[in-house]
Amino acid sequence: MFKELSPKKISMSEWSEQFKEIDTKTIKKFTYYNNKDWGVYLSPPATFMVYGVRELKRLKFDNSLASLRLWGFVFNESERLFRAKQSGKKIVATLGDLGTIPTIVMAFPDCIPFYPECIWWTPFFNESTVLLDTASELGTPEAACFSRATLAAFYKKAYFPKPDILFASSGASCDDYSCIMQLVEDLGYSPIWLEIPYRRRSRSYFTTDEYERTLSGLEYPKRFEHYLTNEYKKVWKEMAELTGIHDLELLRTSIKKVNRLRMLVEKIKELGNEAERAPFPALEMMVIEFGNLYGYADLDEWLDILEMVYQTIRGRVQHKVGVLSADAIPIAWVTPSAEPYLLNLVEDMGCRVVETEYVIHQALVEIEEDIDPFHALARSFLNASLIGSTEERVSRIRDKVHAGKIAGVLITNMLGCSHCAMETRLIEQKLNTVPVLSIDVPAPFAVTEQIKSRIAAFVETMKWAKS
Amino acid sequence: MGEILTPRERFGLLVIDEKPDRCNILPLVTSHAAHVAGVKLKEYYTDGETMARAQIVAYEEYGHDAISIFSEVGIIAEAMGSDFDYPDEDLPILKTPALIKQKIDDIKIPNPRRDGRLPVYLEAIDYAYQAIGDKVPILAYIPAPFTTGMMLSDAHQFLIQTIREPDKIHKIMKKSLDAAIQSCYGIIDAGGLPILVDPLASSSVISPKAYRDFALPYEQALIDFLHRYDFDVILHICGETEPILGLILESGADLISLDRVELSLAIQRLSKKLRIIGNFDTSAIAFSSSRDIKDKVIKMVKQGITSEKGYIAATGCEVPIRAPFENVKTFIKAAKEVAWYWE
Fold this sequence. Notes:
The structure holds 2 protein chains of 2 kinds. Chain A has 19 helices and 12 strands. By secondary structure, chain A is an alpha/beta fold. In chain B, the strands form 2 sheets. Chain B has an 8-stranded parallel β-sheet with strand order 1-10-9-8-7-6-5-2. Chain B has a two-stranded antiparallel sheet with strand order 3-4. In chain B, strand 8 (255-260), helix 13 (263-270) and strand 9 (275-280) form a beta-alpha-beta unit. In chain B, helix 8 (145-151) crosses helix 10 (166-190). The chains are: A alpha/beta, B alpha/beta.
């Protein structure tokens, strides 16, 4: 059995060395969909590197068995989706909503939701422009954000199987991604379109509206809850027709399971962020946070992995050990980076990520279990990061800045991403009581010395501000 | 139909039991790449960057679906102490097998980053991986223990020992297995997918019984090792294989590359469990007319793509070093005419 070592970030080659110590029984113990033939996923980073994930050669990873499970599981997702389809499960693409529709889909037995847009990480992990070039050939403008890789993936049919059904959420969301979803439709797919409302608060003009608050305290016009409820009922009806099942108790059960995931991730984040030393690296933490969207296509196994991560982190916190030095500077990270290497780099240069705003706030909050499930889903989605004001989006970070828990803010600005273009400057202004650095995430494999210098200057500024 | 997938995407689908746009097309362009790139053979097999660049030139010229880092099957034996001659315009020639000079117990397990020309291979893999690894699988041929064992020994004596002194052979096999595993560690970390090659275990060289007793168990062990990494393992045995088709099924390989066997027979007996690779006659690619090659390739590929678990259109063995370029191009073009799975 694998013996846990002192926590540290290690290279792919170091993981290969550690992997030699793992016995075959342990490797075979962990499977997705409980399938012993093709469901084994506990491979070292080198395996995925050999199959084309080239960035793994220069990334660093946490050295725990929990981390190995996490990475193996995440990098197996493409195969997992194909295996799901081969074994008769229904594959459901849930484009654009980021967090809620999968809860409905997972209520139906043997239905697997996934987010095609998560393919935006692939060009960076693969250090490849294959998908981006193909997307351009298919008509996306060069200025569209990296999520345009999604279009190429639909075209190539090599990254996920043809979905049995597609739900595409548009509206108060990324408009460049809405454009990409339209192009997916042009390829011959037939998405079921849903509209996302904007969470406005203009009481002075819309005087007749009733207002409500989400559990997180965000105010919204009550009729939007009803509107979204109807949209989700539409999803339910489509799924019921696809599967021939219509049992609302299954939805309640699904909400409970999703809540279990969300609460567990919240515990992991809290424990990690409050610890004396960072117990887990920022890159793995980002992967964990995004797992809240849909559990990487096998929620049960993902939950099991997270339990192991939680135990690992808890042990490290108890022993006051971690993967970064104790004097790492606490920062908040705004907008997820499509380039995973940046998360490694920022830590290597002396920072520690203690708060995030990765545009998926709606997937992190608890769904109410004691009200009508569709209303509960609507109310949880109304917490979404991108459907309200920038002021609301940055409020959690500002609270922590005021509490002295954050020394600086890093914004990774995604080129071509509509909300980044509009919001990044605003966020800079709203959080300017501490040093704020916004960097444009460059094309795959193109992090320059200039970017490194800017991060180094950001670190120096924070140190100076502290002293 | 136009090409939709890159070779890597195509191979990726094959190994998860999905049919890609068309079957992978992979004439085994190994040292022939030196001929395509116009470099001396000796430079090809003694300089990693040259080997990689030659492979990339060949890939760009032919448009096949993987590159093959390989020169000859003595590579591990050499790192274990066998001496070779290195002619300018030919492949290395075994001069003095290690076991002529040393006892098996004295032979060291090689370090792939240091010993013999294994570092040349690693450099070639690394270079090719960085250059085109996002689009093209980098296949790195690794001699299986039986083949290495024979390259450590006087061949005649080795074959006699399989009958008279089997324990000695097993001892050689165990050491060769360890050496192969160590080599695989280096290959994997450099970015290559190890392909096991065991030409000296074919029925052209040894009996099915000798294969079962001395080659198969060590192929199995090496394949088990690679399965720990969740790799889909290609086993290549050129020469005659019909008498051992049933035994090959027991190897645990996921893809089998065959040479001299009726393709229909291989499909019938193996294709439910294994993806089939093969098996165009390499002397034909060297000496036949374009017309003849085209007709035979089309017939082969039409048959091959009926394989249940998937198929790679390939030559049965390495493309001969000086095979005419036009013949290789004809092979690929003809295969591309009929290789499509997607409408």
